[in-house]
Amino acid sequence: MTVALLGCTPEGERPATTEDTARPTASAPTWHQDVAPIIGSSCLACHATDSLAGAVDLSTGESAATWAPLIAQRTSERTMPPFYAAETDSCQPRFSWSHDPRLSEEALSTLSEWAAAGAPLGDATTAAPVPPPVDTHLERYDLELTPSAAYPAELGDYQICFPLEIPITEPTWIKGIEVLPGDNAVVHHVQVRLDTEGISLERAEGEPYYRCDGALDGDEIGGYLPGAPPVVFPDGVAMPVEPGAVVAMQIHYHVIDEGPFPDLTRVRLQLQDTPPRHVPRLLRVGNTPGITPLGGMVPGPGGDMEFVIPAGARGHEESFLARFDTPGTWAVFLLANHMHYVGTDARLWVERPERELAAECLLHTPNWDFDWQQLYTVDTTDGRAPLLRAGDLIRLTCTYDNSPANDRWMEQLATEGIDELYDVRLGETALNEMCSALIGVYDLGEVTTEGS
Ligand code: HEC
Description:
The protein is α+β, with helices and mostly antiparallel strands. The chain folds into 3 domains: about 20-80 and about 100-125, no CATH class; about 135-275, Jelly Rolls, CATH 2.60.120; about 280-445, Jelly Rolls. The chain has helices spanning about 20, 30-40, 45, 60-65, 70-75, 105-115, 200-205, 405-415; strands at about 145, 150-155, 155-165, 170-180, 185-195, 210, 220-225, 230, 240, 245-255, 260-265, 265-270, 280-285, 295-300, 310, 315-325, 330-340, 345-350, 360-365, 375, 385-390, 395-400, 425, 435-445. The strands form 6 sheets. Strands 1, 4, 8, 9 and 12 form a 5-stranded antiparallel sheet that branches. Helix 2 packs across helix 6. It is globular. The structure holds heme C. Heme C binds near residues 47, 52, 70, 71 and 80. The site of heme C has 18 residues, from helix 3 and helix 5.
């Protein structure tokens, strides 16, 4: 075995310079042979010209080469492709995720070796085939609901609701929901609810939209977060809908320039005309203004029940404990954590007193990023899922950093022209905080197998 001593150069060789180390070697991965297929399938849905992140154009070897060091960095720290659910020491979800876009260890090394070698192009005549980007859109849809007028989004951070009537004359079932944002630059995120009573239509008083901070009608059935795939219910699961029902679409606009920026965001529904075996329900745990929380808060470290993140606090925790008390057995298929900019970590798990599988972590998002909150779908294709039963305890712990060490928060405060940290409390806007989680479940009736 030969040992290379740092700083020693064998006789007759020049010391390595940056230029030398960046020189392609025969064995280094090249764009055409190794890198283009990885970028093609995992990145180009967002990084081709005209896409969500088209400014970072990775569609050709030449343009990708200019980003090579950042490609290596963002992929190895696993912030690209965006997917923030993680397996950690404190959370090992038992099941895999559908649409898990994470790169393999092998692909990660290929990208870093390619960047380290100076992003060589390789030989275009023997290029490896490039698979198309993974398509996460609904494979088919039956209805597209469009507001009757575009919303002129102007400077600020607020929520606007759009009641969208569902043009059906017979009862039917919703199988999938996809939101297509009109203007990505202003649509922060979208929640879609099924308003069976038409309350949102009444609130709109004949207008195509109305201001609705915190006011939410009906059951949540889907939504949009950048990078998240549409909600498609698992096999045998669909949401019943009767004629007269309205899709209440709530858009959180976050606009940092004057505007107006006209936005026409649409909702696509995939329907099925036969009754499903199971009906889904979406539960909210934690504190969400305007909605009765499922479960209560757990006193903070000082025994304080108030939700407040003091100015300057780091590693501040807020916890919730909810008792699931609906009879029957419910399979968990959809999960999402939710906080704003002060949040850094959120963990959701179930405790089942006196059961075989006494505790099960459902979702951990340890590098919380407000811009990349996603809906995570449990892969239930083999018929297995985490289960919830009456008496089970759902716990949610959110961690916050309200100090200058939190770059994203500092940036946000600067954007809003605020120059002093303050005690952050519960609220809907990006300058307040929340600690909540969404749990999508469907009814299995009576099942006896423990926790599988
Ligand atoms: C779901 C859409 C999406 C996918 C898929 C995606 N990106 Fe990105 N990417 C973005 C967006 C949006 C930004 C700009 C915001 C940010 O930096 O987070 C970005 C930023 C970047 C940046 C620039 C970072 C910087 O600091 O300026 C790099 C490099 C990058 N992505 C690489 C990749 C690579 C490599 C892949 C595939 C392995 C990938 N991305 C997949 C959406 C995506």
